[in-house]
Amino acid sequence: MSAHSPDNFDEMIDAEGGVRAAYKGYRDWYDEQDPQGLKRKHQEAEAFFRKTGITFNVYGQEDAEERLIPFDPVPRIVTAQEWRRLSRGIEQRVRALNAFLHDLYHRQEIIKAGRVPEWLLRGNPAYLPHMSGFTPPGNVYTHITGIDLVRTGPNDFHVLEDNARTPSGVSYMLENRETMMAMFPELFTRVKVAPVSNYPRRLARSLAACAPPACEGRPVVAVLTPGIYNSAYYEHAFLADQMGAELVEASDLRVMGGRVQMRTTRGFTPVDVLYRRVDDDFLDPLTFRADSMLGVPGIMDVYRAGGITIANAPGTGIADDKALYSFMPEIVEFYTGEKPLLPNVETYRCMEEDALKYVLDNIADLVVKEVHGSGGYGMLIGPTSSRREIASFTEKLKANPHNYIAQPTLSLSTVPILTKKGLAPRHVDLRPFVLMSPNGIEITPGGLTRVALKRGSLVVNSSQGGGTKDSWVLEE
Q: Which segments does the entry list as coiled coil (predicted)?
């Protein structure tokens, strides 16, 4: 076991070298295991992932290819008490985000009250004027949300970013658990872990509860994928299969008789709820990009007329905006009347003169991100960047400050991974998945833990060399 680092909160080992309560049952089991047997199991898991086709595509590189997401067989463990506290904060935030989106596309009270500036909307490509004055079925915008969390201390969780457009990764959460249960069934009899396998069933039920006014009888749910070349296609197919829903592409759908209808072996059938994994721009070539081959011509007219539910609602992407993220404390307070239970990471908006000056003066110590960036791309981690990279980013910042925010480099917590020499600490984040319907909010216990497999690295994204591990919430 690597030595405990005083700079980072170690989720398994305390400052005196003892094992924390969350990991006690696991560590007792681990100490009884044969190290060679664990390594063999790890190799079996990788073979299973390869055979199942659990891959992702890497874009923007000359060697763009399908890769296996590395899986680490040591779980990330949270106690029931910690999870209860986290859940309250997650639910508060998702409620506030949904209320904010409704307000944004209606009366814009938060802007009139001066709590969020109007310039955040002006020219923001994620803001869709087509949604103005329209309320989605059940008043739900954020049907599925992923809230990225980082931990810096025993009780210190921060929200790193919100994923309200089309959060991905839930298939890895489910496959990681299934793999762990297949590899170590005896471990699950000794340590009681909250289940996650019912997520697809809960997702199907949650989506069906958001059926549109035109729905008659049992809602028909379909998953809209851009197709097999999309980096998350595996997940689209997996979720459709697990939910018992149809997996469709644009060519399978057409607007007929005021409904979006799906081609089947018995002719066309109306779709009530479309879980789309296609970005807004490509959703309807008659409304957005005319060159889109991934969307359905006329779907927005059907949507606004109450003929279909689109999940997540078009226009939710503005909630992923990293400049908007910096106003989340005000947003939470405005719509809930409460202080945020989960704090943001301190954020500098580079379009503000004082903030820009501070960021340029301290860029070597900060993390700088594109406002619309994702997947670990378009960002600078000052402490681990070369002088040339810092100089290049400095020029980008000066040329287009509106495009960037900056944050301090956090001391992310570490959890153990399995290495050739045994357990060693690595940095992690956590993406819990949240379902919202008119019946309420459901949070899956745990979520997707992403881990930076390189020693000292803070970048957990799979596209940047990170891996995943099973996330356990202990039962009472």
A: none
For the chain, what is the domain count?
2
Q: What Cα–Cα distance (Å) separates residue 148 from each residue in 41, 115, 244, 396, 475?
A: 29, 24, 28, 26, 22
pTM: 0.91
Under DSSP, is residue 202 helix (H, G, I), strand (E, B) or coil? helix
For residue 228, being part of any structural domain is answered with: no
Cα angle 329, 331, 337 (rounded to 5 degrees) comes to: 90
- Report angle CA 179, 185, 186 to the nearest 5 degrees: 145
Share in percent of the chain as helix, strand, coil (round to 5):
35, 25, 40
Q: Are 131 and 314 in contact (CB under 8 A)?
A: yes
Domain identity same for 367 and 336: no
Report the C-alpha gap between 123 and 29 in whole angstroms: 56
Contact 399/406 with Cβ under 8 angstroms?
A: no
The pLDDT tens digits along the chain (476 residues) read 333 445 789 999 999 999 999 999 999 999 999 989 998 988 888 887 777 766 554 433 444 445 677 889 999 999 999 999 999 999 999 999 999 999 999 999 999 999 999 988 887 889 999 999 999 999 999 999 999 999 999 989 999 999 998 888 899 999 999 999 999 999 999 999 999 999 999 999 999 999 999 999 999 999 999 999 888 898 999 999 999 999 999 999 999 999 999 999 899 999 999 999 999 999 999 999 999 999 999 999 999 999 999 999 999 999 988 889 999 999 999 999 999 999 999 999 888 889 899 999 999 889 998 887 655 567 888 888 888 999 998 999 899 888 889 988 888 899 999 998 899 999 999 999 999 999 999 999 999 999 998 887 777 776 666 889 999 999 98
Where are any strands of DSSP class E within 294-445? 309-311, 348-349, 366-370, 379-381, 404-408, 414-419, 422-431, 433-437, 440-443
Identify the domain containing residue 462 by its residue range: 44-212+308-342+428-473
Q: What sign has the CA pseudo-torsion 95, 98, 103, 106?
A: negative
Query: Measuring CA to CA, which residue among 11, 12, 1, 4 is closest to residue 35?
Result: 1
Separation of alpha carbons 349 and 356, rounded Å: 7
Residue 42 CA, chain-centre distance (Å), reads 26
- Assess if residue 282 is contained within a domain: no
What is the 8-class DSSP label of residue 464?
A: G
- Same domain, yes or no, for 60 and 109? yes
Q: Is the peptide bond before 312 cis (omega within 30 degrees of 0)?
A: yes
Question: For residues 360, 365, 367 and 370, what is the CA-based torsion angle, rounded to 10 degrees?
Answer: 10
- Same domain? For 206 and 352 the reply is no
